[in-house]
Amino acid sequence: MPISCHGVRVRVVTAGIGVSWFNDVSTGCFRVAGFTRNSSAAESGVIQAGDVLLEVDGIPAMQKSLRDVAMMILGPPGTTVTLRLLPANESLPPNSNSVIKEITLIRRSIRQE
Asked: For the chain, how many structural domains are there in total?
């Protein structure tokens, strides 16, 4: 996305992990809806459809807007982002017996096909 400032054009590049989310209105949580093919999330094999997003880089994701969550996940290509996820088959809210998945992914440019 080109930006002009004082006559200088700069191209700002953001990258992601290739996850699409949906808002589970009954819980106020974002769940994994799917993946972009060949993305770091899809290639990880760890993230599954229906998983609940708990944190992004240690910041709670519950009760945030989709825009806020996207801004937390997006960043410069080649940088990392760490997600904490509750598997789809676990009950909310998480408790001391819950299995929490934590994964660090590398952001990269995502091409929709």
From this structure: 1
Residue 53 maps to a domain? yes
What's at 104, amino acid-wise? T
Show the domain range for 23. Answer: 2-90+97-106
Helix, strand, coil fractions of the chain, as percent rounded to 5: 10, 40, 50
Nearest-angstrom CA–CA distance, 97 and 9: 52
Instruction: Report the DSSP beta bridge partners of residue 41.
Output: none
Short-list 112, 94, 91, CA closest to 34: 112
Q: Domain for residue 80, yes or no?
A: yes
Alpha carbon distance 110, 101 (integer Å): 23
18-61 per-position pLDDT tens digit: 999 999 988 889 999 999 988 999 999 999 999 999 999 999 99
pTM for this predicted structure:
0.83
Structural domain contains residue 44: yes
Provide, rounded to the nearest whole percent, the portion of the chain with pLDDT above 90.
Answer: 66
